[in-house]
Amino acid sequence: MRRLIFLLLLLAAGLAAGAHAYHASIMDVRYNAGKQQLEVALKVFTDDFEKALSAGQPRPVSFEESPKPQVTTLVTALLTRSVSFGTKPGEALPLHFIGFQKESDAHWLYFSVKLARPVKGIYLRHRLLLDTFPDEMNIVNVEAGGKKQSALFRDGEESQKLVW
User: Which UniProt keywords are present, listed alphabetically (predicted)?
Assistant: First the structure.
C-alpha cells in the first residue's frame, strides 16, 4: 500500500513538472450528493491527448490551432469511448462535457455525470489513452461521503468499483 501511495505521489508531482517520460492522467471525482451528480476534472498531458485526438483524423488535432467546436466534439467522443461511470457493472451513464482549460503542458477537462438516485459507490471504467499508450497510468482521486480515496487504472486493470 505504501508503494502505491508513493507511486501516486511521484506521478502527481511529475504531472506538474515540465517534460515527461511516462504517460499518465489524474482524474479528480467529487460526488455532489445535493445535485446527485459526479463532478469530474481530468488532467492530461496536452501532447499525449492531442496524439489520441488526431488518430483517424485527416490532419493533426491541436487545442491551440484546431477549431474549438471540432476539438470539443473529438474530446467528447474520446471521453465517451474511454471513460464510463455506472451504478451497476457495465452501465455507462451519459457524460456532460463542460469544457477544457490549459495549464502549462497539460489540459484540464471538465465534465459531470448525473445520477438517478443517491449512491454509496460507483463502477468506473477508465481506459483513457490506453489505445495510444499501452503504458498509460490513470490515477483517480475520489471525494465522496466524507472520504477520500485513490485508485490506479492501467492496462488490464481498467474497471473498478469505488465505494464510500
Answer: Signal
Give backbone dihedrals phi and psi of 146, rounded to 5 degrees, phi first: 75, 5
User: pLDDT per residue over 40-53, tens digit each?
Assistant: 999 999 999 999 99
Q: Find all residues with CB under 8 Å of 128, minimum gap 6, and list them.
A: 25, 42, 44, 78, 79, 82, 83, 136, 138
Among candidate residues 26, 4, 29, the one with its CA nearest the CA of residue 15: 26
- The DSSP string of the chain is -HHHHHHHHHHHHHHHSS--SS-EEEEEEEEETTTTEEEEEEEEEHHHHHHHHHTT-SS---TTTS-HHHHHHHHHHHHHHHEEEESSTT--PPEEEEEEEEETTEEEEEEEEE-SS--SEEEEEE-TTTTT-TT-EEEEEEEETTEEEEEEEETTB-EEEEE-
Angle, nearest 10°, between helix axes 46-54 and 68-82?
A: 90
As given in the structure block, the three cell numbers for residue 102 are 490549459
- Least Cα distance to 45 among 71, 28, 21, 78 occurs for 21
Residue 21: band (very low, low, confident or very high) from pLDDT cuts 50, 70, 90: confident
Cβ(114)–Cβ(134) under 8 Å? Answer: no
